[in-house]
Amino acid sequence: MNASTILYAVIGDPIQHSLSPAMQNWFIEQFRLNAVYAAFHVRSEDLRACIDGMRAMGIGGINVTVPHKEAVVAWADELADDVRLLGAANTLKNSDGHISAHVTDPHGFEESLGGHADRFKGASVLLYGAGGAARSVAYALAKLGVRQLLIAEVAVQKAFELAELAKSFGIKNAAALQKPLAPMKTILANAHIVINATPVGMHPWHEKTVVDYPDVITVDHFFYDLVYNPGKTRFLREAEERGATVQNGLDMLIFQGLHSLRLWTEQELRLSTGQFNDLRSFMKKLLGIDE
Amino acid sequence: MNASTILYAVIGDPIQHSLSPAMQNWFIEQFRLNAVYAAFHVRSEDLRACIDGMRAMGIGGINVTVPHKEAVVAWADELADDVRLLGAANTLKNSDGHISAHVTDPHGFEESLGGHADRFKGASVLLYGAGGAARSVAYALAKLGVRQLLIAEVAVQKAFELAELAKSFGIKNAAALQKPLAPMKTILANAHIVINATPVGMHPWHEKTVVDYPDVITVDHFFYDLVYNPGKTRFLREAEERGATVQNGLDMLIFQGLHSLRLWTEQELRLSTGQFNDLRSFMKKLLGIDE
Lengths: 291, 291
Known about the structure:
The structure is a homodimer.
Chain A: E1 6-12, H1 20-30, E2 35-41, H2 47-57, E3 61-64, E4 78-79, H3 81-86, E5 91-95, E6 98-102, H4 105-113, E7 124-128, H5 132-144, E8 148-152, H6 156-169, E9 173-177, H7 184-190, E10 193-196, E11 222-225, H8 234-241, E12 245-247, H9 250-265, H10 273-287
Helix pairs in contact in A: 1-9, 1-10, 4-5, 4-9, 5-6
């Protein structure tokens, strides 16, 4: 730490349980950057003063979390294309007082897939949820070239809106499912990929799942849960028991964070396999995940 | 580092060469505080946005250096008594969005004296300089109970002002010296304590000294130079050669910083002799001081 050390931070309300400081400082150490990453509890009414303060103090970058991801867009000087399309940002970059807004969640989803990315080209995807996380996933799905996107969400109006948005991203075959009417069993059976982008499966819903007919799951399914704590939700467990390929949200969390750091530093920043495994263990320990 | 880690920082313009981040993070490590200390380059026109940002982000404390020490007083919610008297602050403390302004330089001077503090009671002090540092020293001298304060400064009007201020601090016998008129040789000979609070002796004035008649220095003199780089200025060297007791500004730098951290943490924070010697070595290494 010296007078040239750059500060990065995450802002949110609440912020107490954010894993970002631990994870980002782990990155900073591994990549030997002269930087440090803090967390600030910022209330909505203080958001503007926070961004102005970022400019005044030369804070290099800020990660934005709930509930500021949408509101922060108004205070940036420049919006990345994906921020315009999604109406939300999770990353602010300060270039000599000029604040640009970015969103790294879609990238985080994509990079987290690794070799599984190939499964998405031309696939039919069943997506549970239509909130901010689901929007980011839909954006990534468009880039991955899925053929069909079916959106299941209790608040059906939100599902319709997301379907329209997904069409604007380029997924022509995007539709909202009205649960009591839609033949969920058949849809689930025919989907190649099933994604949970709702909080169901997290505490206090850790014994719940969005899936109604787990019996139709086969070895050909790919189940992806954005939830990472618990490491294996009922959603993933029931799929794994039937031989499906499963993945939780931990790697997406890691890659969305790493991508913010890449934007800030304008460096490639690649993790070796060894580093990546170390980071996963470190994160699981922080989360208190045994598995 | 986690989401509860408190951020402290120093602001100034320039700030590149500040030693505060290195020193304060050393303290933070030694005292095992969950905190981190950064440096922000803040321009005068951004000072208000910086303080508002401090409130919005919950930055725990800020050290203020040149050129903001006076201007910052206007943006604090509450001023400590010494800040009122000195018209300058070097420490802002954030208590749930309420910003109080403090000045730790007088305390830093006092605590740096250690056993030499006894020399000041009833002493006659010759002080070179009448800027912000000299004001802080004058405030400390009042508390230390000096009998007489004579102020030598090229800009004589500033010396007169400081003499008036010193009187208000309680040093009845305070006066400005007009160099061409004042019998400097006799004054120096009769002073018990001689303090340099000017930048003379620092690079690029490192071969200069404020003292015109070093030959009258004796073993009874105490010479204190606020300059700490070089570690031994010509001011101190000429005094030491004549057997005087000498001290440079390094310990004052250390104690003014430590005192800020005490204000922020509301903890006693005492250094053991071993820690203190380690810190001095660390600081000298940072400064590139051999001696």
